[in-house]
Amino acid sequence: MAAEPEPLDDPSMIWDETKVEQVVGDPRYVAGVTMKLEGDYEGAISFFSELLAIHEGEAPPPVHLAPLYFQYGSTILCEKESNAVETQAVAAEPKEDEGSGSSSSSTSPPPAKRARVVKVEDKHEAPRGSGPHSPHSPHSQEDTGGTGGEDLQDPTLAAPGSGEDPRAAEEGGEGEDDGEEEEDDDEELAWKLLDVARDLFQQALSSLKAGLPVDTAKATMHVRSELARTVSRMGDLNMVTGHFGDALVEYEQVLKLREEERDTSVDGICRLVDTNIQVACAYLEHVVQHGETDVVISATSGEQVKVAEASDVRGQMLAYFDRAKSLLQSLVSRLAEERAKISDDEKKSICVMYQLLNDFTVRLSGVSEAQEGD
Question: Which of 85, 163, 229, 267 is the most buried (most CB within 10 A)?
Fold first, then answer.
């Protein structure tokens, strides 16, 4: 008979729903989430930073702060993604040719869109996919550690009690170099916050598996879902920074967590579809940047690790895409057979998934044409 897991001695590492509700029910947290959904990322960041500053004396951070770390890091990433979309839109606008008066646009197709299936009413968000070779921070060779405690001492995080956006202290520089440094700092901060959230959710899962608290089934399902969401955002961050191999590893970890959920609801299947598309997109962007070469990442030890053979890249990309398409078609067929009534939000999720499949097809076609032209 298998031995029972040893109980955890540190209460801060135990998933306590009451303490979690105190965090996500804090007016600053609620205001931050609301502003994030409205697209006011700077305002949301200020609220999350202020709330985190109150708890920064706690090291290592307790697991009930995982949703806060996630929201803070995810919001910084949302702001970066929004800026990237605006930049792409400007670059894609037809420009008048001074010589002929005709208009021209870039022949390089834009990256495929990647949506996140997140319920608007969800207040929680979350954490960590542990693999044998966890990707390092895009701008740091240092291992942030398992608990994230060292991150709290980083000068880029807000000083306890300051309530200030940690990025504000570094403003004032001018010029292109200063802008690039600020962008790098934002990426680094987002990575650290998400990495701490991932560690905390992973620790929460461990506490639940140890039987703490007693009623663990519902809590385990919730924490696993939050863990998948956090790892997915870390994959998104790697996509934004051009680390497609690292993104691939993160998304595959998310896919494993999603499959463990065994959620056959419309939202559950759409999340699976979304994640399969994310994996396919990571492969595709690798092909765009590096051709059909080996997919290699750097492990925390500095060792180069091959995660996909060059000969398998295109086949794997198409396999994940076909899997996404099959899952969505099966869902729609099942709903039709059952004559199931679904909500407007569920209908919207299905439509978004079809749009993502179409976006990927268009992107792949554009890439193939560009390669043939070369």
Answer: 229
Which residue range forms the structural domain that includes residue 346? 254-374
CA-wise closest residue to 311 among 335, 296, 332, 292? 292
Q: Is residue 101 part of a domain?
A: no
- Closest residue by Cα to residue 163 from 269, 285, 317, 53: 53
Q: Report DSSP state, residue 128.
A: -
HSE on the CB side for 56, CA within 13 Å?
24
Its sign, for the CA torsion 173, 174, 177, 179, is: positive
pTM, entire model: 0.74
Handedness of CA 11, 50, 230, 228 (dihedral sign): positive
pLDDT value of residue 55: 86
Q: Are residues 328 and 234 in the same domain?
A: no
Q: For the chain, what is the domain count?
A: 2
Looking at the fold, whether 25 and 163 belong to one and the same domain comes out as yes
Per-residue exposure over 213-249, b if at least 16 CB sit within 10 Å of its own CB, e if not: eeebeebbebbbbbbbbbbbbbbbbbbbbebbbbbbb
Q: Are residues 287 and 320 in the same domain?
A: yes
pLDDT mean for each 10 residues of the chain (374 residues): 48 82 96 96 96 84 94 94 74 52 40 41 32 32 32 35 46 55 84 95 85 69 93 96 94 94 93 97 94 89 89 96 97 94 95 97 92 73
